[in-house]
Amino acid sequence: DVKVTQSSRYLVKRTGEKVFLECVQDMDHENMFWYRQDPGLGLRLIYFSYDVKMKEKGDIPEGYSVSREKKERFSLILESASTNQTSMYLCAIKLGGGWGRNTEAFFGQGTRLTVV
Amino acid sequence: AQKITQTQPGMFVQEKEAVTLDCTYDTSDQSYGLFWYKQPSSGEMIFLIYQGSYDEQNATEGRYSLNFQKARKSANLVISASQLGDSAMYFCAMREDEAQGGSEKLVFGKGTKLTVNP
To answer: Residue A111: what pLDDT?
Structure first.
């Protein structure tokens, strides 16, 4: 079974703090993604990575950065957390090349971040 | 412009009845794929079903089927014989075709909250 593990289920941080959200996969998958989920807005892509040290901006990258030093780990970084970054953050991996049946995205359990 | 539209913020259905969750999409690509995911209150995202744009038959996975109408650009999810455990958020998503320069990503709709009543 594919396993995508996010380091924390719930996190409370203060405004201005540097925050690291970690995502680890147990297989050799190239593609990893960070989404944030807000009520009424669905899932929005922040950043994704298709290989070690490779990254691409998604639809809402402002205020975030990412790091992928090893294939199995993809970190989302909030350089200076703000209250509008309070959200559910979901990490996903994609199996194989292309998208389709048997190459769908698998998600972690999510991290609910509250910035106070 | 919104690429995936789910017009029903919330839906209610009686246990054992069928329900249709709507999804329309916008793309100029000839090759694309559509996914449905379920998110229970626990927060995990569960893949349900996939439909490719060139698939000639509508996708089915157990009690889930996808009513794919290409000309109308709709990909509605049909859940037959609803169960209490089907109560969850449901998201429609579309992949962009990488062969035409699209990025390797899924674009999601805003979701529909389904409540199954006993």
So the answer is: 95
